[in-house]
Design brief:
This protein is mainly beta and 641 residues long. It has one domain: Beta Barrel (Maltoporin, Chain A), CATH 2.40.170. It is 10% helix and 54% strand. It contains seven helices and 31 strands. The chain has helices at residues 2-23, 32-37, 40-55, 92-98, 103-107, 177-180, 448-452; strands spanning 69-70, 78-79, 86-91, 113-117, 125-129, 139-141, 144-145, 166-173, 187-193, 200-210, 214-224, 228-239, 257-269, 275-288, 303-320, 323-340, 343-361, 366-379, 382-398, 401-412, 416-430, 433-444, 463-476, 480-498, 510-532, 535-545, 558-567, 572-582, 591-603, 606-613, 632-640. A hairpin with a 4-residue loop joins strand 17 and strand 18 (366-379). Residues 216-615 form the TonB-dependent receptor-like beta-barrel domain. It holds the Pfam family Plug.
């Protein structure tokens, strides 16, 4: 009987979403995105997931699931049980328990995400979300978009982002251009830095030393009163590293990295309810890399990159009548130099953005979020401007059904206007059993480099996409949870390198519009089970079909992470994770890597830890030809007071 109750609402949601989407011109013809989406394999996967739901412990079914809050899915705080979007929330405790140095290494544990690295920290790391590459995933840090305006396709490079200053990460999956504009084709990653967690003043310090002469240090101070809040964090990281090109191929030169980062946040609320605030960061780094040739004939290269990145945001929150308003301005600047054997190429880019957002209730069952923004990007003497207006209606259509309708229009200074939309629905079969579905379209404007560099073409048009997903989530209180999501993404008018293109006048080709489509479809599974009060198991699995791919690099078909977290004594706890990747592109072999950590609580806010990367010293590559860490030991201390 439970299987029947699961199937009927999901079919209703699909039909409703498909019908409404035709009205706002998501596509032409008889809803091709959903026709593809209902492929036999995905239907079977959802049926198998439903069977798993019924097989897990039934004794805890009466326990209501704990609420989580997302600010990414609907542009303001919303319970994850009230949104049809697929969102994963990562807390500061989860980051600390895992112990990963790079944010990318932790994100690789999550469903839907894969990461290809080009060596140690400081070298390029490319993140894929549901099989789509990084240029389709905007990354925001405290409301500041940090994608590099001077990079070839405007993507954010996760190779240098440390976990030292991160307190929360939200991963929003599915096309979100209706809220975030250009690039939000595959989803959005929203990062929040450290803040005060309670009234009073908090300080924390962390230090670590380990393999490859790696040293880490961070210090944070945060304070909170009834009307004010402030936070400041400094972090330092240095390492000798290992060879970016795989040492097993004859490359022996270690590629080091060092970075210093400072971030701040502050806000004050006046007696009349007006809140004024500012936040920002500055980071300087230097890191070595290997070009595609590696170490030629035993001669070490002299390849390194310097980065100087800065960002700032000022904002005002206030209420007029029944409308909650936010005004903000953001600025991001990237000054990057890539040097090889004495020759340096500068890449400078800036992004400024002004925005307004309002929100008001429309009766007892609906809430409207609306706004406008204007963004200017500059690099190498060229610039583009995008003006956008948007609106989102959140409607409690029934006691157990929430619908969200999002619409945005952007006007780009080079290719003109584009309208994007998203429809999302969540149906609560029970308080702890949810069905979700969403359908949206997205776009990516050509980057400044693609338009105006010596390899660019100023006549390039936007890239277009459609996406859909449908999922089920079941929770048994704090004992267990299971989430399954089937997804589909289709992109066309893609921009890529074409060796035959002549528009830029270069003999080896140009950036050009690539004929054909890239499609991604698959299944995400995520769950946890509390085996006992002392042992928790968690797993995340992603199946991705990349058989139709024009211009996008393929990702592994199977990606699985299993993590065990246990309490050994009152003071001693541990974490062990296994990451298994199989059926990889370019004939690359499958691999399984094990990481482990032990934490000892000394009391009074002090914790010592030992962590081991690549516990069994596995030789593997995430990016063909580039190296990964051998077995590596690190010891550290965290303290808060």
């Amino acid at each position: 009987m439970r299987g029947a109750s699961v199937q009927r609402p999901s079919a209703v949601v699909i039909v409703a979403v498909c019908g409404i989407s035709r009205q706002i011109s998501f596509h032409e013809g008889p809803c091709p995105a959903l026709r593809e989406f209902r492929m036999q394999t995905l239907r079977i996967s959802l049926l198998l997931t439903t069977a798993l739901v019924t097989a897990l412990p039934a004794g805890a079914e009466d326990t209501t699931a704990l609420d989580e809050i997302t600010v990414s899915a609907n542009l303001e705080a919303t319970g994850t049980d009230r949104t049809g979007a697929t969102v994963t929330v990562v807390t500061a405790d989860a980051l600390a328990q895992a112990g990963d140095t790079r944010v990318a290494d932790y994100l690789a544990r999550l469903p839907g995400i894969s990461v290809n690295g080009s060596g140690p920290i400081g070298t390029t790391a490319s993140l894929y979300l549901r099989g789509a590459p990084a240029q389709y995933i905007p990354v925001l840090v405290d409301g500041i978009e940090v994608g590099d305006p001077a990079s070839p396709q405007g993507a954010y490079d996760f190779g240098t982002l440390s976990t030292a200053d991160v307190s929360r990460i939200e991963v929003l999956e599915g096309s979100s251009s209706a809220l975030y504009g250009s690039q939000a084709v595959a989803g959005v990653i929203n990062i929040t830095t450290k803040r005060a967690t309670k009234p009073g003043t908090e300080q924390s310090v962390a230090t670590e030393y380990g393999q490859y002469a790696t040293r880490k240090f961070s210090y944070s101070v945060a304070t909170k009163t009834e009307n004010a809040e402030a936070a400041l964090t400094y972090s330092h990281l240095s390492t000798h590293g290992f060879s970016a090109r795989d040492e097993n191929d004859g490359n022996y030169e270690a590629d080091g990295y060092r970075a210093n980062r400072l971030s701040f946040f502050g806000q004050y609320t006046f007696a009349n309810g007006l809140t004024l605030g500012a936040n920002g960061f500055a980071e300087k780094s230097w890191g070595e890399f290997d070009d595609y040739t590696g170490d030629v004939a035993g001669t070490p290269g002299d390849d390194f990159t310097t980065r100087d990145t800065k960002g700032a945001r000022v904002f005002a929150d206030f209420v007029t009548g029944t409308v909650a308003n936010t005004l903000d301005a953001t600025w991001f600047d990237s000054d990057r130099q890539s040097c090889s054997n004495g020759w340096c190429d500068p890449f400078d880019g800036t992004r400024t953005k002004l925005g307004y957002q309002g929100a008001t209730d429309l009766g007892a069952t609906a809430r409207l979020v609306f706004g406008a923004d204007t963004t200017k990007e500059k690099s190498a003497g060229a610039s583009t401007r995008t003006n956008g207006v948007f609106g989102e209606l959140n409607w409690a259509a029934a006691e157990k059904l929430d619908l969200t309708f999002s619409l945005r229009h952007d006007d780009h200074s080079d290719f003109g206007g584009f309208t994007s939309g998203r429809i999302a629905a969540v149906y609560r079969l029970q308080d702890d059993l949810l069905l979700r579905a969403s359908l949206g379209n997205g776009f990516r404007a050509p980057s400044l480099y693609e338009l105006f560099s010596v390899y660019g073409d100023p006549d390039l048009k936007r890239e277009d996409s459609q996406s859909a997903d449908i999922g089920i989530e079941k929770r048994w209180g704090e004992t267990a949870s299971l989430r399954a999501t089937a997804f589909y993404l289709d992109a066309k008018n893609l921009i890529g390198w074409d060796y035959a293109a002549t528009a830029c006048g270069q003999p080896w080709g140009c950036y050009a519009q690539v004929p054909g489509h890239s499609r991604r479809s698959g299944l995400e599974l995520a769950g946890h089970y509390r085996v006992s009060p002392r042992l928790d198991l968690a797993a995340a699995y992603t199946y991705t079909d990349t058989s139709v791919s024009t211009g996008w690099a393929a990702v592994a078909r199977h990606d699985l992470t299993v993590t065990a977290t246990g309490t050994i004594t009152e003071a001693l706890s541990g974490d062990m994770s296994v990451h298994y990747v199989a059926d990889r592109p370019d004939g690359m072999p499958e691999y399984a890597v094990v990481n482990a950590s032990l934490d000892y609580d000394f009391g009074e806010g002090r914790t010592g830890y030992l962590r081991v990367e690549n516990l069994f010293d596995k030789e593997y590559q995430t990016n063909k030809g580039y190296g990964t860490s051998d077995r590596a030991f690190y010891v550290g201390l965290r303290a808060s007071f």
